[in-house]
Write a structure and sequence with these properties.
mainly alpha; two-stranded antiparallel sheet; globular; disordered C terminus
Amino acid sequence: MACPLSAILNPVDGAAQANPMPATGDDDDDATISEASSRIIDQGMPGRKLPDEGMPGINTSTRHRRSSTETDLGVGKSAKQVIIPPVILSPDQDSPYNRRASLSPTLVTVPPTPSRRDPLHFFANDPSPPSHEINPGNFSVFNALLNYPELTLEFSKQLDIEDLVSLYAVSKEFHFLVNGRFTAMILGQSNGKASESSKTFIFRCYKSLCMRDPARRVNETKPDELRFVPSLRWLRMILFREAVVDDILQSLAAEGHRVPKRTRLTVKKIWFTIDISDNARRIGLIHNTSFWSNKDLFLATMFFLKIDMRLTHPTAGNGETGLRKLLFAQRSLSTLAKVLRREEMRTQVDLLRMLVRFNYEPRRHRQMDIMGVPSHEIGRLQYEGWGAKDTKFIQIDELVMMEAVKRRLNLQRYYVDMVIYGYINKKTFQDIRTPMPEQATEATEDSEDDSSSEENEEANERHIGSDTNWEERGAIENGEDVEMDDGP
C-alpha cells in the first residue's frame, strides 16, 4: 500500500495510528491537539514543569480550523492529529530566538530586544569613554617631573634657549629648583649645545655676563663674598657665536673658499682675542702656546687669506685687502658674517661710515657728526678700549704674523698651499666643483660634491702635513707637530 505524501511530511504518532479518533468537529480537534502536545512535551523533557501561561517566552496553542482546501485535496482525517510547532513571526508575540532561549533547560533570562527604530538605543546606557579633557586629580606631568631634579635638568637640555628662559620666568617651581643648581644647569646646556664655544669663551672672562650664585654659595678665595656663576646671558652669547662662526665658514665654502674643519675652533680663538680691550693682554694671550698653538697660527693665516680672496674676487667682490683690516677691527665677527651674506656694506655709504668709525681723523670740525656718525665715535675703533684710550690697537692679523715670526714657523713658504687648498684634488689634480644650493636642478650634484669635497679635504690636509716638514726645517722651537687634522 502506497504511503501518502502527507504522512511522510507530517508523520503521525504511533498511538494515534493505533486508536484513530473520529473527527466530529472543530472542538474535538482542538482538544486532541492540545492533549497530544502535552504528552509529547512530557515525554521529551521529563521532570520539568510547564510554566504558567502568563510567563514570557511560552507560546500558547493557537486555533486550528479545517479549511475547505484540505477537504478538497482529500487529506486524511488522521493528519489533523499532527503536532505542528507554532511559528510566530509577529513581533508582538516575541521572536523565535527568545522562544528557543526560554525553552532551554537552563532557563536563561533573555533581556528584551531593543527596537530597531532607535539605533542609538544600544549606546544610550553605555558609559562614556575617558576623555583627555577629564583630569579629576589635576595631574601634571611637568609637576611630577619636578620631584626628580636630575631628570628635570636632562629635560631642560632639550629646550631651546628662548624656551628655557620663558620656562625659568614663568614656572615658580622650576625657577627655585634651577636656582639651587644654576651652575650645573648652565654648564650642562653649554657643553651639550656648544662644547667648543663653552671651553673657548670661558664665563670667568666675561664678568658682565655672570651673576651672583642664587644658592648663595660663597667664593672660596673670598669667603665674605658670594661667588659668580654663568648666567643665561652668557649661555645665549656662546650659542649665538657658535651659529655665527658656522655661518662665516659656510658662506666661504659656498663661494668655493674651503678651510679645514679645525678652523672653526681657530676662528673662535680669534674672536676671543678680539674681545680683549688692550694690547698687553692680547700679546700675552697669543704668546700662550697652550691656547694659541702653532697649528692655530697656521689655520688663522689660511683663514685671513681666504677672506682676502673672497673680498678681492674679480667679479663678486672687487675690493682690496684693506677691507679685511676694517672688518677685523670691529668689536664682533658678526659684522663679517653679515658682510659675507651681503646684508651689510652693500653700498659705498655704508663702507664710508665704517671707515669713519674705524680710523678717520678729521682735521677740522671735530665736534660735528659725519655722515650720521656721532662725533664721539669718529675714528675710535682703532684705539684701545674701542676709544677709551689713546693707544692704537695691534690688529689680530698683525698679532698672528708677529707670533709666527717669533716662533720661526716660516709660514710664507706655505702661502701657495693655503691658497689652492680646497680647489684641487691632490690625487687626481682636478678642480673641486663648488656646490650651488640656489639651483634646484643640481641638488643631486650638490650632494655628490659635498661628499667628494670631504674626501678631497682629507687628502689635501694629508698632503700639506706631508709637505710641511716642520722639524727638519727648524720651523718650530718646541718641536710641536703642525700636521692638520679634523679634530681639535
